[in-house]
Amino acid sequence: MRVSKRLEAIASMITEPILYDVGCDHALLDIYCALNKNTTCIAIDINKNALSSAINNINKYKLNDQIKPVLNKGLDGIDDFTNSVVVIAGMGTSNILNIIKDKKIEHLIIQSNNELWRLRREIIKKGYIINKEQIVKEGKIYNVIISFIRGNKKYHIVDYMIGPIIRTKKLDINQEYIKQLIFVNQEIINRLPKHLFARKLKLSFYNYLLKRELV
Ligand SMILES: C[S@@+](CC[C@H](N)C(=O)[O-])C[C@H]1O[C@@H](n2cnc3c(N)ncnc32)[C@H](O)[C@@H]1O
Question: Which of 43, 69, 76, 206 makes an SS bond possible with 30, Cβ 3.0 to 4.6 Å?
Answer without folding.
Answer: 43
